[in-house]
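Q: what sequence does this backbone want?
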C-alpha cells in the first residue's frame, strides 16, 4: 500500500471513531434522561409556526449522526433543503 492510501484509511478510521463516540454519547443521554414519554404519545417535532422543536432538532441531529444526507433529512422531516443544510452546518460544528 502506498502512503496516500494508508493516510486515507487512517482518516476514515478517525471519522468512524468520532461518529461512534457521538452515537455513544447520544445513547448515554437517552438512557440517563427521564423517560416521561407515555407509550403511544407522539412527540411533536415541529411547532405551529413550522419551526423544529427541541425534539425535532434532536431527531434531525440523530439522522445526521446516522449518515442521512441534507436531502434525506429535508424529505423525512418536511423541511426545506436550506433549513436542512443549516441544521447540518450546526450539527457539524458541535
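A:
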Amino acid at each position: 500500500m502506498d502512503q496516500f492510501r494508508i493516510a486515507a484509511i487512517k482518516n476514515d478510521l478517525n471519522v468512524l471513531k468520532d461518529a461512534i463516540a457521538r452515537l455513544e454519547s447520544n445513547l448515554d443521554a437517552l438512557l440517563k434522561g427521564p423517560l416521561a414519554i407515555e407509550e403511544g404519545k407522539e412527540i411533536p417535532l415541529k411547532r405551529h409556526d413550522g419551526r423544529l422543536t427541541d425534539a425535532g432538532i434532536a431527531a434531525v441531529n440523530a439522522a445526521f449522526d446516522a449518515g442521512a444526507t441534507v436531502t434525506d433529512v429535508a424529505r423525512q422531516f418536511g423541511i426545506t433543503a436550506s433549513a436542512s443544510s443549516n441544521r447540518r452546518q450546526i450539527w457539524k460544528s458541535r
